[in-house]
Every structure is written in C-alpha cells, then in structure tokens.
Specification:
Structural class: mainly beta
Number of domains: 2
Largest sheet: 7 strands, antiparallel
Number of helices: 2
Strand content: 35-45%
Shape: globular
Number of strands: 12
Order of helices and strands: HHEEEEEEEEEEEE
Radius of gyration: 21 Å
Distance between the termini: 42 Å
Amino acid sequence: MPVVEFLIQRFPELKTSSLATTVGRFTTALSLPIAQVEAERQDRTRSGRMFSGMSGTTGVAPVQAVPTTTAAVALYNADPNRSYVIDSIVWTVLTGVSALNGTTCAIVSPITSTAPTSASGSTVGSASSSSLQSRAVMAQAYTIPTPALTAEWMFYGTMTVPGGSGVGGSVATDIKGGIIVPPGRVLGLSLFAGAGTSPTYVCCVNWFETQLDLE
C-alpha cells in the first residue's frame, strides 16, 4: 500500500529552506494543519488581480432618499471576460462636515445605451504594481436603467466615524465577495446618510478580477 510521509516542524521561510516547496506540512496531532500562514488577500494581490479605484477629485453628496435611477458613483466593468469581485467600499469626506452614520446603497445593473465614462481625476490602480491592467471605469452621476423593484438596490451596514467629522473622516463597508460585477455590467453606488453641513465624499472601491462561471 502507498505510504505518505509528512514533516512536522516549524513553518520554513521560502527563501531559507527548500522544504517550503517540497514537503507537506502536518501537525503533532497527526492532522492536516489548518492555520493560515498567508495573509487573507495575499495570493490575490501577488497574482496582480487586486485593484482599487477612486471616484474622482470632485466629491459626491450623500442622499436622503432611496436611490432610483441615479448612481452617485459607478464602477463599470468594461472587461469582456473578467468579473469584478468586490472586497470593500470606502467613502471619505472631502469637503464639509458629515452627519452621524451612513449606509452604502449598491446595485448591479446593465448599462444604458451610453457606457459610463471616467470622472475627472478618477483613478484605477493595481494593489501590487502588476503589469496586468484593469479596464475598469470609475464614473459619477451615472443614470442606470429603471430597476424593476426598489429592492434591487442593496443596503450594506458600515463602520462609520462620529458625526461632525471633516476631511478624511470615512464610512467603510466590507463586502468580502458579496457583490460580483459581471463583464459589461455596472456597480451603482450611493451613500445614504444625513445632510450634515454640505458634506461631499470621495468613493474608493477595492476589488478582485477573475473569470467566473456565473449561473
């Protein structure tokens, strides 16, 4: 019968031990190790698939009503093959003074007859300075097709700064793969929050690009 040998030892660094790539790890309890050695997003970032986009140098205002057909910020997936798996969404105060709390409103939608165009000062960058390029477009004030139901807008709770925060205060939403933007679709975003003292926000979206079987 076949015999499998495992080595029980401390975790070896890749550059200091050939065993790091040639020997399987096992525990002293004769079980497979489940402790995660790599950081949570390390391999996705290493492979050049993690990207971050900023909505532009002009801030957008929060809304005090459920959005319908206007997305304050839009992330357009112009790639014919890759889907965008959303990791997080961050709203940062650019001007004015924010109100207390905020909720991210999101919708994955077809585009209209006119595709979104890049907002002034918007950027899309690799999280690892990879040679792989994203075809993402960060737009503002984009009109999406009329949703069949208001419920097509999704609401996500956030980690927020106290009310009254000025420049740099933020509203952060962890998505962790809970939203996927297929090729040719757009992710519409608005911040549902109090009016405050005329605050505007810059929106940053972080995502992972990969080919997926979307059923």
